[in-house]
Design brief:
Elements (H helix, E strand, L loop, with lengths): L5 H51 L19 E5 L4 E4 L33 H9 L27 E10 L14 E13 L5 E9 L1 H53 L14 H50 L6 H25 L8 E3 H11 L7 E6 L3 E3 L2 H18 L4 E8 L2 E8 L25 H4 L4 H11 L3 E5 L7 E7 L4
Parallel strand pairs: 7-9
Antiparallel strand pairs: 1-2, 1-5, 3-4, 4-5, 6-8, 9-10, 10-12, 11-12
Helix pairs in contact: 1-3, 4-5, 5-9, 7-9
Amino acid sequence: MRRASVRVRAALGATVVVALALVAAGFFVVATLRGGLADTARLNAENAARGTAAQIADVPDTEVAQVDGLDGDEPAQVVDADGKVLGASDPLKGRGPMADFARADRPDDDTGDAGDAEGADPDADADDAADTDDGDSSDSADAGGGAGGGRAEVDTDSETKTLTFPVDDDGEVTYDKEDVVGTQEFNVAAVQGRTMDGTPVTVYSGASLGAQQEAVSTVTRSMLFGLPVLLLVVAGVTWLVTRRALRPVEGIRQEMSAITASTDLTRRVPEPDARDEVARLARTTNETLAALEASVERQRRFVADASHELRSPIASLRTQLEVAAAHPELLDLDEAVEDTVRLQTLAADLLLLARLDAGERPAEGRVALDALVQEHVAQRVADPHPVRVGALETGEVRGSAGQLSRVLANLLDNAQRHAASQVSVAVRREGDGLALSVQDDGEGVPEGERERIFERFVRLDAARSRDEGGAGLGLAIARDVAERHGGSLRVEGPTGDGARFVLRLPLADG
């Protein structure tokens, strides 16, 4: 299955994240709102119940029904310890006791204490009991009994339950079946108190939860309608922003495609003015193209120079063979062998450079540079200039003995070509490495040419014959091998004191 584009995935991802965040926030807001409004209703119910209980403390039993706390539209009752309703608000007049938090689990045909209440309707009381929530029964008799004169204090403890009452279209409690349009939950608080003549009573007062439910419903509807719109806005904005951000990437892709089709490595991708990741990608791409262009150009020059260098010994050897075929007595066998050796050496150099360019790593071995120098110097008995061996400090480096031997041979060959009378070689310790130096007493290398001489097929002496000077690959091979071994090769010292080549390599561990 084909994957969607980055813009589509970014828009979908942002939309999903925002949706999850909004849903979680919505649940939190609704829960907080519901809890806050429920607490408000509970406090209102408790305050109303305590206020009514405080008023009842100033009146005898017979005047409880006339207290101000029972003249509202909210459900309120005063019940004595025997379950007799001493007073009630208008919606509950003629009804049984609200409570014991009404023992909602009692059978419908059990009217309980309601049958003893003045003006109680058994059927209505059963309906009222069925509408109540489950809860622990509150025994009003716990308020204590006993008559006594004086003002009684209200018990500060209260118990709150949620009861369901039938309501009319104005949300007011009613038991008139013609007016009932539904039910409404009320937070009902029960407070213990005493009348002026010491009769223990329980005061019930309810506060509607309709405002809470309406507020929660309004917020929920708003979220349900607003969430899709907000998600569409988030998706659209994310799409546009991602499209704008990725526009330079598309430009880079198109230019890279054109470069690939045309094989023109001189072209570059456009670099945005911003300092963001896309701009850095463009700059890195251009740097890669520049390095690739330089590599291709270097390879092109290498092939051209190699072809040119190979042409001379091959042409000379062919001429000699053709002459020998026609006139065997004219064959210069020594010159033919010399051209063959030169051709073999050049082929070996080119092969080694090809392996180095391919990333071939040197063999893992331990090489003692002092022993390597002594062995080489002992074998070079036919050199035109004597080789003076200086200090040879002991130490081992890690790498290929064959490749390091080739480096030393190239350095000594180069020194022999430029020396006036002698060549010197030495090995010294420098910190955690070894420095092998090869110096001649010739004219030296000018400051401006000290890096160019390590390029391939470079010879500074243009007047020098090709046969005497070689192909110009020795120093290039020596530096490449040194760098592959984690070291370096440089020309040091004053120009007039000859050329001093220093090969530095790290010591082998342990």
